[in-house]
Amino acid sequence: MEKVPMKLLTAVTLMLGPMMMVAGQLPKNEDRMCVYQTLSQEDALFCKGNLNVIYPEIGDIGCMYVPECNDFRQKIGIWGKPSIKYSQADENKKYVLMMVDPDAPSRNYPKNRYWRHWLIVDISGDGLKTGNIRGHELTGYQPPGPPPQTGFHRYQFILFEQPGKGKQITLNAKERAKRGSWSISDFIKHFHLGSPVAANQFLTQNYLDF
Questions:
Q1: Which band of pLDDT confidence, cut at 50, 70 and 90, is reported for residue 32?
Q2: Cβ-contact 175, 109 below 8 angstroms
Q3: ω into residue 196 within 30 of 0, thus cis?
Q4: Are 135 and 160 in contact (CB under 8 A)?
Q5: Tens of pLDDT along 105-124?
Q6: Is residue 76 included in any domain, yes or no?
């Protein structure tokens, strides 16, 4: 078997950069590999605290682009809520989780920032440790659905420790009326949530866009 020159191997490694080739669960008629691409250095800065976002088939998609293969970009818009796991959770504390899209309707023109996809309060710490979260949904889960021709959207998951005392966390009538143009900063300030203990995000675009 002919040896591959070292210079060629080095060039291929540099070209791949942050790309990872993973076999995954491929259909029988599929002979190409799934490409799991990590986020750019700038977008990766958002990810902190080892918060796992786990969808069927894909697995933990935190800090990555949703792969094009296996119709994942279409399926993620159909699947139900992901499993959220935070192994550092305190079993004696409650938590608040929000999932938002800051790029509605597009990253270049985010006039509806932030779009609220999911909001849960009173999450038990023991559930977070196992990935089986239990709490009170203020906004039911809405899967990612980036409109066609709007590029990649960031889907962000932000976790807070819930204050032990204080106001009951809820949405006002205006917030309940619509998901878009939600002021995260006002919500955090009003309920004294402080800084997040963990955060993660993934990026995807409309499955018909190429």
A1: low
A2: no
A3: no
A4: no
A5: 999 999 999 999 999 999 99
A6: yes
Whole-angstrom distance, CA of residue 158 vs CA of residue 96: 8
Indicate whether 26 belongs to any domain. no
Alpha carbon 168 to its chain centroid, in Å, reads 26
- Identify the three-state secondary structure at position 154: strand
Residue 16 lies in a domain: no
Q: What is the CATH number of the domain that holds 133?
A: 3.90.280.10
What distance in Å separates the CA atoms of residue 54 and residue 82, rounded to the nearest whole number?
Answer: 5
Residue 99 falls inside a structural domain? yes
3-state secondary structure labels for all residues of 101-118:
ECCCCCCCCCCCCCEEEE
SS3 155: strand
Q: In this model, does residue 54 exceed pLDDT 90? A: yes
DSSP letters for 15-63: HHTTEEEE--S--TT--SPEEEEBPPHHHHTT-BS-EEEEETTTEE-TT
Question: Which pTM was predicted?
Answer: 0.84
